[in-house]
Write a structure and sequence with these properties.
mainly alpha, 5 helices, extended, two-stranded antiparallel ribbon, 115 residues
Length: 115
């Protein structure tokens, strides 16, 4: 049944929205990596420290996700831990430059025009 589910998700549900061959290949590769026996057995780690829960009701899934899902971090996306530092540095530089631009920055002039 996993092959059928992969086909339904990858080709039917998302397949019509994926127009590029390489994007379709990427989607298929992700589904092959995710849709395994370990996913159903409860031994599959969806994210670092977040194991796929056993079968349960919708309400229990919702509660499980709210309580167990780790906070967002670069590790969840396969990035090194310093990626967050780089992101925050770039964002703070952008915000600072926008503040300077909107406040007029430092023009250094005294308001006199020399001819």
């Amino acid at each position: 049944p996993r092959e059928d589910l992969r086909y339904i998700i990858g080709e039917i549900m998302y397949g019509g929205h994926i127009t590029d061959h390489w994007d379709r290949r990427t989607c298929t590769s992700y589904l092959e990596g995710l849709m395994t026996d370990q996913l159903v057995d409860g031994n599959f780690e969806l994210a670092h420290g977040f194991i796929c829960p056993p079968p349960m009701s919708y309400e229990d899934y919702t509660q499980y996700i709210q309580q167990e899902l780790p906070s967002e971090s670069p590790l969840l996306f396969g990035l090194p831990s310093n990626a967050d530092i780089v992101f925050l540095t770039v964002e703070s530089e952008f915000v600072y430059s926008m503040i300077m631009e909107l406040s007029g920055g430092s023009t250094g002039g005294g308001g006199e025009i020399k001819e």
